[in-house]
Amino acid sequence: MKVPFKKIAKSLTGISTPVFGISWTPPETDREIVRKLITFLEDRRALYNPYDREFPPWVTQSVLEIRKELTDTLKIIGDNPEISPHLRAMRAACRKFMDSTAQPGKHYHPFFNDFDFIALGEMRATFGIHIAQLCVKYGIDIEGDLETILPVEDSEPKKRRIRRNFI
Known about the structure:
By secondary structure, this protein is mainly alpha-helical. The protein has one domain. It has helices spanning 5-11, 30-42, 56-77, 84-101, 114-138, and strands spanning 12-16, 21-24. The chain is globular. Mean pLDDT is 79; it is low at 1-14.
């Protein structure tokens, strides 16, 4: 597989002489990019803080910052089929949350109503699914409270099948 010259040139950070020397910065791997995004999301309380502790303006600001970070990460990875569908789905969940909580004619209130909590829960669920898939795909551990939005493990014991012999 050929590596285009322009791609190599972007990685060069300097040239030195008397004898010869080149400084090179290797491109970030997909895993590093996803790890940085997960680290950012681990500090976003809007994704996991208990509902009774949520303050609408702060949640809205956090969701806007999350959406910007997802867009910036999409700019870095391009149209990577392993990552971009997850980021686009999370970004769409942010837009849906913003659309449902910032309706025209709705008066500002310092507390969420039931429909706002439903929208926040939907966004968290979407993030949980896509974060889990990315972490499994790239072998990334999650720290902190972000794990509370991951899908739960099916812990129901499997029923034993009773084998019946009919004569």
